[in-house]
Specification:
90 residues; alpha+beta; 3 helices; 36% helix; elongated
Length: 90
């Protein structure tokens, strides 16, 4: 059998590698694994996470928030011309 080339992409990664790929902490990774948002399996004592599951998780997150804005912080102030005028009732 010929040796594998370095250009071959792995099908599964370890949790530490998944954290690096997703840019999240170990605690956050195990939280999303526990909630079922990210699929994984055990190979003996080792947990493995398929790259397809990581791609699916990213696609679902992008679909849930297509603008990329988190909606946090104070809302922008509108100029005086754009603010709705409230009439005083007597």
């Amino acid at each position: 059998m010929p040796p594998l080339s370095k250009s071959v992409e792995p099908l599964v990664v370890a949790p530490r590698q998944a954290c690096a790929l997703l840019g999240i902490s170990n605690t956050r990774l195990y939280h999303i694994l526990g909630t079922g948002e990210l699929a994984s399996y055990h190979d003996g004592r080792a947990r493995r996470i398929p790259l397809a599951a990581i791609r699916k998780y990213i696609a679902e997150r992008l679909a849930a928030n297509p603008t990329g804005k988190r909606g946090r912080g104070r809302p922008r102030k509108l100029p005086a011309a754009q603010t709705p005028q409230v009439e005083a009732s007597a």
